[in-house]
Design goal:
With about 140 residues, the chain is mostly helical. The chain is about 75% helix and about 0% strand. Helix 1 (about 10-20) runs antiparallel to helix 2 (about 30-65).
């Protein structure tokens, strides 16, 4: 397998965008604006999560020098744990489930459930990014 450079910029920028959105206060706005903020945060979570697992995939391919296209996401997260890039694959399974539910985010209960995991995801994604930056930057 050809050695590809690991470019972390898109993941770094997506995470920064998510973190910035999470700082936006929503308690002092009316329900419609509050829901709009939450909807935008959920969308930022979607693409940040997608970039996170794709970064894991690329880094695994870089480390093992073999394709991991046939490995499911759960196994990718297990392998990332083995490499010390994430602390708990089970937590990342929950993020995957939340991401799968975002297509149903029009249901307010589901959207709130997704929203509730975004803060912890941002913390774990930042830790992942910092580890990958130390290794590949």
């Amino acid at each position: 397998m050809e050695d590809k450079k690991i470019i972390l910029t898109p993941f770094r920028e997506a995470l920064a965008s998510l973190e910035l959105a999470l700082q936006e206060p929503t308690d002092d706005v009316n329900d419609v604006r509050k829901q709009m903020f939450k909807d935008s945060i959920i969308q930022r979570f979607e693409y940040t999560y997608e970039l996170a697992w794709k970064m894991i995939k690329r880094c695994l391919e870089h480390e093992t020098q073999e394709s991991v296209d046939d490995i499911g996401r759960r196994d990718l997260f297990r392998r990332a744990f083995e490499f010390g890039w994430i602390e708990n694959p089970e937590t990342w399974f929950a993020y995957q489930e939340a991401r799968n539910l975002t297509s149903h985010a029009y249901d307010r209960k589901i959207a709130q459930g997704v929203f509730d995991v975004i803060g912890p995801f941002a913390v774990d994604a930042k830790q992942l990014l910092e580890i990958l930056e130390q290794k590949y930057a």
